[in-house]
Amino acid sequence: MTTHTWWLLLILTIAITALIYLINSRLRIHPFVALIVVAVGTGLAAGEPAAKLVESLEDGAGGTLGDVGITLALGAMLGRLLSDSGATDALAHALIDRSSTQRLPWLVTAAAFVIGIPMFFEVGLIVLLPLIFSVARRLEAQGGTKGSPYVLLGVPAIAALSTLHGMLPPHPGPLTAMTGLHADLGLTMVVGFVCAVPTVILAGPVYARWIAPRLAEVRPDEALVAQFTGASQSVREKSPVSVTAGAPHASSADTDVTSRSRIPGLAITAVVVPVALMLLRTLAETVLDETSTVSSALTFLGEPVVAMLAGLLFALGVTTLGTGRSGEEVRASLTDSLKSIAAILLIIGGGGAFKQVLQDSGIGDAIASAAEGAHLNVIVLGWLIALLLSLTTGSATVGIVSATGIIAPMVSGGGLEASLLVVAIGAGSLGLNYVNHAGFWLVKESFGMDLTQATKTQTVVQTLVSVLGLGMALLLSVFA
């Protein structure tokens, strides 16, 4: 490696150390401010021109918020409507009443696995938060759970969503790698599924059972928990049953209760709407001609922002018409839902700015150049390049795309080896998910964690997924 490459590596090390210090030291600087300060210092130290540095900050924050922020806001609104309708509370009741505590992490894993097929990591987590918080709150009230119930249920969701996002087509990253390496779609999906199942099990429910007792103090901010779970009793409290001569007597209130009892089930359908639209988009991109009208329509409707907007509008119709709430009440609820995520949005934007500076300053290219010179098994090399690029740029997709471009000339294309490379590169892009990744901050702030706790969950879980994915790919490579 050249002297300049070593210098960039040193800058990266100092930047991450400084960020951790600013957030965790006695200064207790807000993560958003710390991210921007460190991003500026990193860019200047790496020699990025001042004018370009400002552009990197703006593009990074704006691009990340464009990808995640709008969807997060719509998801927060949708979650509040589900809470107000009693949907999340009813679903939490059903899961707890019909399942043991030991089975709940597995049920969350299954739900996340299904939702994660068409959805990005951040979008899938936003959709699952109302369910996770509602069930965890009830487990917390019942007692008897070892450690934090939020960690117990959150870790399996993180593991399943991240595995599918990085390792399995039709997500953009793996799909791009599959195209670049000329891998067969059917074979890649089969190989990806075989690698994903044991990976999700070990990094999800198994690790959750071990880590939850060690993070017993983790609990999301009360306002965020209340947003998803606190208003769910209002429907029942507003519908008393009149009694005459010791027996229930039907009244207009009874009719209202009967009508409203159907609202939770209908509201839960609002979660299915964006999932279905994203899945249809995936199918359209896979099997239809991209120039066809149907493909264009499904692709548009399956965009995360459009799909989440459709789910929100559906929930608005169901909960507003079904419960008779006034427009002013609904608007107040939606406004309150945004207050609790304002800080999360700023921090995610700061992480995007830091990511863009690392990318534009040349640190990512230096890491890729150093890894390319190593004499390693091509599957391990693809995994390593994606891992380092994802770490330095803060983007799993960037890691996958760049690693694919570097590795493609080294393989003939097609066959089992190409499909295994898709999985390995995707797995590599997930590892060491840390402070310059938007997903890290989303998990940290949503679950009310400090940096150490977030590292033990988000970073460790995704690194476990990364290493286990590589291990499964190497195991299957004996048949290549």
What would you say this structure looks like, in words?
Helix 5 (104-115) packs antiparallel against helix 6 (121-142) and helix 19 runs antiparallel to helix 20. The chain has 480 residues and is an all-alpha fold. The protein has helices at residues 3-24, 31-45, 50-85, 87-98, 104-115, 121-142, 149-167, 172-180, 185-211, 222-229, 234-237, 252-260, 263-287, 293-301, 304-323, 327-339, 342-360, 363-372, 378-393, 396-407, 415-428, 438-446, 451-476, and strands at 243-244, 247-248. A two-stranded antiparallel sheet has the order 1-2. A hairpin with a 2-residue loop joins strand 1 (243-244) and strand 2 (247-248). It is globular, with a radius of gyration of 23 Å.
